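Sample entry (275 residues):
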Amino acid sequence: MSITAHIPSHRKPRRSASKLAVRAGVAGGVLSTLAMAGSASAASQAEPVTETLEMPVLNLDLAADVSSAVTKSADATRAAALDSELNAQELAAEKSAAATAKKAKAEARAEAEAEQEAERRAAAERASRTATRTTLSGSSDEGGAAKSAGTAKRSTATGSAAAIVNFALAQVGKAYVMGATGSSAYDCSGLVQAAYRQAGITLPRTSQSQSTYGTQVSLSNLQAGDIVYWGGAGSAYHVAIYVGGGKFVGAQNPSTGVVERSLDWDRPSGAVRVL
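Predicted structure, serialized as tokens:
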């Protein structure tokens, strides 16, 4: 027996062939797995992933409903705007009509008051000229000559003047009504306006406006058909129609109605010629 036989050997024991083979297989598998992972990582870095998002498709019935609702809303808005505009127009028309009626009423009242004042003034003037009127209305030769001349002048009026004069004379005896324009009653400016309408001429409605409508003429140069007025031009309170022969026809007041009078019965302030 060797003297070293009892000393354990320090050499590593030999591995069996089977164990070596297993270890080699495990190592190879690990390396293969790493290689595949690396390839996959490289591939993922080379080709970015693209995702596709699908948008929801709008249902056709829902789209039609939305379109219909929008159309109805627009129609309702237009209808509301139209109603608002019509209401505004109606309100404006009502205001305008009310203002016109108020103005006409005020003018008629002012004219009536002016005519009443004219009658009072005329009465006072007639009272102060009683002697003169009596002389002028007598049957003296001078008065008779003037009357004949006046009748001749009236009878020779022609054309538009004749139409105006004849109409005015035909209204004598009819009633006086404030604001009336015919055919059974008149106020002073209503009679003048109606007479001139026979000649196709439209005059303003009030005595104030009629006293400035045309050319101012002298009372000594009157012609049949001229408009005579009392008061100032533009502020006249009474008007009538000169019919020739030193006379006029006018709607005087409610107590006398439409009458024919001598200029000297109540001398006018002025006259205008329209023809």
